[in-house]
Amino acid sequence: MKKYCLALLSLFCGFWSSPAAARKVYFNEVFTDSTLRIDYMFSGTKQTQHIALKALSKTNGWYGRRHHLGEQLLRGNGQLVVLDAATKDTVYQHSFSSLFQEWQNTEEATRLERSFDNSFLIPHPQRPVEVVCTLTDTHNRVTSELRHVVDPKDILIRDRSMDLQTPWRYIWKGGDSRECIDIAIVAEGFNEEQMPDFLAMCDTTMLALMSHEPYRSQIQKFNFVAVMPRSVQNGVSIPRKGVWFDTALGAHYDTFYTDRYMTIPSVNRLYDICTGIPFEHFIILANTTQYGGGGIFNSYTIASAKSPRSKLEVIVHEFGHSFGGLGDEYFYDDMYETWYPADTEPWEPNLTTLVDFGSKWQDMLPEGTAIPTVPDGQDVTTKVGVYEGGGYQSKGVYRPTQECRMKVNEVKEFCPVCQRAIRRLIDFYTARE
């Protein structure tokens, strides 16, 4: 979900390929075992984008990847590239999508300027680096860029290593953080007395997610921590009902006036709560029975903790967005708005406009498969083809199978193309070069 059930908008900038780095990057030669947090403000209108640096801070320990540092496997609609300030070698890359860029596709953005905060983590450098933050539009055009030098000796980089930590605990540890993917499950709208219930929901959420391939067979590559910020009030705000609660993250429904779209107003606040805790990805469990949620690539997944459908359906689907970078495969026959331009290949690995289909799942097609492929109702989740309809559009966008976890919540598994895409990301995070 997103607008029209939580769209995850971004653009193709090369798929399963990495921009050339000047040399192979070895972690211990360039970085320290600590984390640099960079806070930005993204602002603008439908036609304009601006990036501003907000703050820099650091903490002990680095919990992200230590291999493939100068590479990028999957690109969203935003890029963070770190260059050695002296040599201009690429030493680290990160990609993301943002709620701001999604908002730019709303009607409100045609008449109002708004700002959204964002936080990103990179390994703390040993020497000065140049950080390049860029935002692109749906035609892969760079619309805004900010370059700034970070000197690790800068006295205005706040050391937060001794900040009081939010209570947290491991609920599953597959191995050392240096070799695993760390996922923080964060409580939202739970008070002190409800924390035992939250912890039980964490276990259920983790088991539900890990029951799906390719996570199931690679559970040893994941660590899960439960993060327990206490909220003053229980629940999640529902603006259309006039209901507002004082909670740890301020989560609310009705994002962009879409009733089931739940987000948080400040990503900075989420990172504040998780300061010093091992994490790379977030799942936020909201204390509500109201159906809904959201997922933003390399940002966060949020979903109702108590909706009967959430743990087995919404969270798995939304984590496909936030972790796997997968696009929505459903569509609307009466959809007149174009989310994916016909002249541009989507960056999501499970969608294509056929502009550069060779970079997607063409190698997985059975010999003789027609393009487009006519649905026949047989082997609907496993028969790979090129089926028209996806990315909210009934025409011009194609998906890999007739049904998939990214199309229908009731489907039990991801299709073969989505499974391969997730597996590639897992390997990218954890496999040694």
Blueprint of the fold:
Layout: H1 3-6, H2 27-30, E1 31-44, E2 49-60, E3 78-84, E4 90-96, H3 99-103, E5 114-125, E6 129-136, E7 142-150, E8 158-159, E9 168-173, E10 181-188, H4 195-210, E11 222-227, H5 267-273, E12 281-286, E13 293-296, E14 300-304, H6 310-322, E15 331-332, E16 387-390, E17 392-399, H7 416-430
Parallel strand pairs: 2-8, 10-11, 10-12, 12-14, 15-17
Antiparallel strand pairs: 1-2, 1-5, 3-4, 3-6, 6-7, 9-11, 13-14, 16-17
Explain how this protein is built.
The chain has three domains: 3-159, Immunoglobulin-like; 168-322, 3-Layer(aba) Sandwich (Collagenase (Catalytic Domain)), CATH 3.40.390; 329-339 and 370-413, no CATH class. The strands form four sheets. Strands 9-11-10-12-14-13 form a six-stranded mixed sheet. A four-stranded mixed sheet has the order 5-1-2-8. By secondary structure, it is α/β, with parallel strands linked by helices. The model is unreliable at 1-22 (pLDDT under 50). A hairpin with a 5-residue loop joins strand 6 and strand 7 (142-150). Helix content is 15%, strand content 28%.
